Amino acid sequence: MKMRVMATLAAMSLSAVALGQTGTLEQVSPMTNAGFNLGASSLQWQQQVKVGVAGQLEGFQLMIQGNAGAQFNARVRVGDGWNTGAILFDQLITKPNNGNELMFIDVTSANINLNVGETFVIETQGNDTGAGLVGSYVPPPGAPLYDQNLYLNGPGCFADCGWRHGFNTYMLEGGGGLTIDLSGNCPGQITIRVSGATPGGRLAVIYGRCGGHTTIPGGPCAGTQLDVGGAALLRYVTADGNGNASTSGSAPQAACGRICVQVLDISTCAVSNDEPL
User: Fold this and answer.
1) Class level of CATH domain 24-172
2) pLDDT tens digits, residue range 198-249?
3) Which is deepest, 10, 29, 117, 132, by most CB within 10 Å?
4) Neighbour tally for 135: CB within 10 Å
């Protein structure tokens, strides 16, 4: 099966997932070159997030700055920012150590179920104990590193709209959403069947090392996290009117049990489950 490398993909390593996280790594907003005052009680931040995988929101990671004992409230509201709707989750978070810490905030107690394309906001507000948060900034007219806006204290994107809070969200998948199923024998002919895609949408069938991760650095799905290492493009396919598609190819012996396949819905940037050959 002839395979060509997808030029728009580049492998990037991520920090190890903390204990207690069992869901799919879903939306990713890079934690790079910007710091935010999370501690001031007068500052109420909302980072909008767009869902790519249907299911229950397990939680999110934030890179928190400051000394041990710094505190802030983490909240979730469903819908676009600036959001004044119901607070579905609200927890006081206390920083256990000095320095930068990647902290996972578990929201499963709130039972927040979301569909592909829905939005919610990660809201944060401090209590004047010195917490900070790491995110990113790209000066306009450059494209921000995540495509949903950051808000502060009210409507309208923060400052010049190039700022984003960094985060990783995790989803417990449950029904619906983009899924794939593989049939056949490896080595030999393998058929990949896709369901839950955008009707009539273009899909990228991707392969890579099982157990790895790749972040798409550019294009319409920049920042999307794939669950295969060294991801490369097998081919493009188009979903039918029901959101289904299939494609076949011959898998070599060397790929069996080592290479996994995943599908990216280019219309929504949703990613499927990954399956080994």
Assistant:
1) mainly beta
2) 889 999 999 999 988 888 888 888 888 888 999 999 999 999 987 889 999 9
3) 29
4) 25
